[in-house]
Amino acid sequence: MEKKKKFLGILFDCCNVYRRIYINKEKNAYEGNCPLCQREVRVLIGSDGSSSRFFTAR
Length: 58
Prior knowledge:
Oligomer: single chain
Number of domains: 1
Shape: globular
Structural class: mainly beta
Number of strands: 5
Strand content: over 45%
Mean pLDDT: 94
Helix content: under 10%
Largest sheet: 5 strands, mixed
């Protein structure tokens, strides 16, 4: 059985493009970047966080 990677869906407002970002090795944040302009995004994981899986990076 294949284990699925955890991800968040991010709409990068900078270039109006959607991309998945994945959990980092430390398992304390989701990290990724815009595929066009390389703008970085980091979403921390915490007990008081959101249950949403889709966000917009502005």
